[in-house]
Amino acid sequence: MIGRNEAVTTKSTIENLKIADSSAIIDVRIEGIRPLIPPSCLLEEILLSSKMLQTVTLGRQGAANTLRRTDDRLIVVVGPCSIHDVEAAVDYAKRLADLQNELDDDLLIIMRVYFEKPRTTVGWNGLINNPDLNGTYNINKVLRVARDLLARIKMQIPTGCEFLDTMSPQFISDMELAVNAVVAARHLHCFLSVSTQGLAFIVNTAGKDYCHTILRGGSTGPNYEQEHINKVCDLMRKAKLTENVMVDCSHGNSRKNHANQPLVAEDVGCQIATGDARIIGVMLESNLQEGYQKLVPGQPLEYGKSVTDACMGWDTTVDVLNNLAASVFENDEKIALRVSSRMLHRTSKFLITGISQVKLDLCRNLCIYSERVPMMNDAEHAHFILRLLEECMSNDLNRRTQAEAQLSIIVSTIMSGNHMHQNELILQTLLQTVSPVTDSQAASLTVPPNLRIITCIWVKNLVLKYWKSPEFVSDRWKTQVFRNALLQMAIQETNQVVALHSSVIVAFISRCDFPTRWGMEELFQPLVNCLQMPQGLFQDLDILIEKQYRAIDIILRITKELVSRRLMAHRKHFGAFAMDLLPFLSNHWDVIMNSSVDGSIVRSVLKLTNISTKLIAVILTNAFRVLATQDFELVNAILQKMCHFIARFQAQFSSGQDQKAMEIQAGKCMYQMSKLLMKTQASYPMECRQHLQEFLQLYWEI
């Protein structure tokens, strides 16, 4: 029998167990709920073609190779701040794809395709959330539009997307580039998401192997300069991360001003050109039209203009990308990778499109072969290697396969080397192939450019690996002959890639042999001779200027190598040479100013101006204490002549198809001069300050 108190308690418990009507407290701020299309339906509706799959695979592979440092191209993520007009985006992609085909050797271009915008304040929050730009939020519609747009773009060029939640990727993730904007996903992660069937799942990730840091500026200002790169790389090194840095040229680095993006890209390009291989990519905000426009209800939008952040226009974008490509080409740290990585990059295209793996095996063998040059017994082996290299570039598959098989055998039998002195036979043969010594030989030999480039790579690897060995060349006289031959090849070579490799070789040998085994007169006199210009009228001014450019470039490389040894004795040697060098620089600028320089060689002269300014900066930095007052006055006179030439160029060549490119080159010259002034202004002797002030006034007028 249940007591009175127990009965009351039981009744209360039953009342508490009754299910209450919760409609008054659930979804009280929700106006409507619509079903979301399952990702699997969309994946079936808009399928990937083989062309799209190839584009995605090549893009991911190229980015991964760049982060692994096996591809020397620079990653460039460029495109609109956000996508709001599908047709304009496709138009932009077609133009970008054409540009990618031109710059493919130096840049891996990825189109920025952002469908969502992070918002901490009110404003348009992206195509996926508000496709019609009117607050209707037809998300199912735009998921189709987004995937269809990516499909159309992926027929042209790789894309990069930013995902602000864990659900959007399920609809378009098979088109996402492997390199994401956020690289914290190196380690394992767990989060909530949906499957392709639209069911809620707990997702565990394995992490990403290829990570990089993006610098986009912050509350303290821009962070794209050399000191910022060094700082972030120090932090990455301490964290045991690969020093891969990408610079965002927009946002904080541009101080929210789209017109500053080319300036940021120019600075980053200079860092890349001077050898900083840690910068693996840049990001740019660009559109068909410059600036941005506001969303005004009822008013039509301008075609190809951003509705969020202001962007660069298309013409500016082309100039910036061309300059970045030139910076990558000039990077000496990356030049050693150029042939092997180019071949690997192009081979991957053949491999994916169904052609056999033969070329990939060839590239691997060449990479191994160039790093570990096998020892030869006689000169015929060197000739045999040249024939193999030539056959490996044949269009005939059978010939190419046989050559590759023979090369594989050679690679597999690499020896540690008990006959290193016989390398001189290989070196002599390869040098004659790269650059024939006499005009008669040049007339009789027609060596394909690709073979000359690969051969030059071999010469450089031989020298860099074995030159310090006392048995590399058996005779001191032959050593001198090889040094002089390499120097002449670097000065006279017409192929730009071969000339760059040759300059690196000469600079390295100077570091090893100067001044005891390779004296001042032997090393620098041929370079100084190139700077001498005859007075009066003369023909082939463009050829002469190109030789001067190459000579100054070699002097720069040699100086950097010598300074890196931190030996004051060598700095004194260079100081003595610098005092002799300045009059030649002044003389050749007198001749240029008095010559009738036409539009066909203005760009070459501007290029010469740029590198001359760099040389003067090196002279003032490393020979400052041994220069006299008259030397500083001569420096100021040279700088003034350069400025007058640029002013004359601007007045004389105000139009023409090359005008834009020449203006960019002139801007580079002025940029180098401004850097020189900032570095040396405080160090000038008091008696030279007046000359510096005169130059500063002229500089700012231009």
TrEMBL record:
Keywords from the UniProt entry: Amino-acid biosynthesis, Aromatic amino acid biosynthesis, Transferase
Recorded GO CC terms: cytoplasm
Pathway membership: Metabolic intermediate biosynthesis; chorismate biosynthesis; chorismate from D-erythrose 4-phosphate and phosphoenolpyruvate: step 1/7
Substrates-to-products reaction catalysed: D-erythrose 4-phosphate + phosphoenolpyruvate + H2O = 7-phospho-2-dehydro-3-deoxy-D-arabino-heptonate + phosphate
EC numbers: 2.5.1.54
Domain DAHP synthetase I/KDSA: 70-175, 176-320
Phylogenetic lineage: Eukaryota, Sar, Stramenopiles, Oomycota, Peronosporomycetes
Task performed by this protein: Stereospecific condensation of phosphoenolpyruvate (PEP) and D-erythrose-4-phosphate (E4P) giving rise to 3-deoxy-D-arabino-heptulosonate-7-phosphate (DAHP).
Gene3D superfamilies: Aldolase class I (3.20.20.70), Leucine-rich Repeat Variant (1.25.10.10)
One GO MF term: 3-deoxy-7-phosphoheptulonate synthase activity
Single biological process term from Gene Ontology: aromatic amino acid family biosynthetic process
UniProt cross-references to NCBIfam families, sorted A to Z: aroFGH (TIGR00034)
InterPro entries: Aldolase_TIM (IPR013785), ARM-like (IPR011989), ARM-type_fold (IPR016024), DAHP1/KDSA (IPR006218), DAHP_synth_1 (IPR006219)
Domain of life: Eukaryota
UniProt name for this protein: 3-deoxy-7-phosphoheptulonate synthase
Transmembrane domains' residue ranges: none
Family, per entry: Belongs to the class-I DAHP synthase family.
